[in-house]
């Protein structure tokens, strides 16, 4: 193959949106149009026919993920206008053989998707010997969310087969460039094109990256740094959506309005305005941490005020959550410090020393453990379980991307109900 091809994966549900996005992607330099599996499941072969009719000069890839009835499904896609049909690499050899026979009969090519294959190198060699035309080094969306990389899979395949290798799974301009450096002949990009407000511009940036790949040493990033970077890029509502409407604290307000906090929880349990343990926890917390204080929801006396807030700011603490009241609100607002509480009250408590630091607590309706991630903004505060922090942060980024595209379509004059096709997708 003379140059790497850019394949745009239309992993959407609605055909009119998919056609519009495909057109914009082609304007930006995409070569091949993939009718993604969600679109095929939603719209059937009508989606393949529509793409062939609308874009007659381009390769149309039908991501059928064939696992059985190889001949039937390849024939169906071929007669609908696909030029390349995707099958599952881990399908039985009999299915692969039938798919190859049908592909030869109807003049189409086969791409085998390595998703979940236990030994991708050995299986790729077997598929090449059976007549498959392309191998797809694909790491699925749910696998990406927990840190698996298509580039790692691609590296394992280097030199293993002679047929062209495609790569798919969360690619952007930088990773697409790296994929070409590693030998990818086809770069498949979905979300970072189709969910963009500027589809053509995003496709153009990726097109440029794969046409002029640069060798860049990988930047080392600790797991905590990666989680923080991702969470800082999204909103509390994005995270709630990524967690299926879980994790949100209740009855809290942002004392300083439009502020943002992200950090690991240092938990405090105190009683009825006793401010000793909350203040002692400032010395326990590290830079970038968030203090989460359970005060049993007591709102007639405050375990927190301006002097404690100043101490937090001086130590680089990212924010504070109080399941209770705060005072000195005017001084705290002048600091623009991320502080979330139930209410404000002038009464101060007393430092009796009751309670505990860094133990599991309940705060504003959520369980919080030391080390859980806390994100707060004007919409509220969410708790992200520490063991799923990277996954949830990645999913929240995908939520944000989806919203960016929907927002752009609304700007162009469509209503939210039209974009989401609510009547079509109401639960029956």
Automatic annotation (TrEMBL):
Domain Orotidine 5'-phosphate decarboxylase: 5-206
EC nos: 4.1.2.43
Keyword Lyase on entry: yes
Keywords assigned: Carbohydrate metabolism, Lyase
GTP-binding in keyword set: no
Reaction catalysis annotation: D-ribulose 5-phosphate + formaldehyde = D-arabino-hex-3-ulose 6-phosphate
SUPFAM superfamilies per UniProt: Ribulose-phoshate binding barrel, RraA-like
PANTHER family found in the cross-reference section: 3-KETO-L-GULONATE-6-PHOSPHATE DECARBOXYLASE SGBH-RELATED
Similarity remark: Belongs to the HPS/KGPDC family. HPS subfamily.
The protein, known as: 3-hexulose-6-phosphate synthase
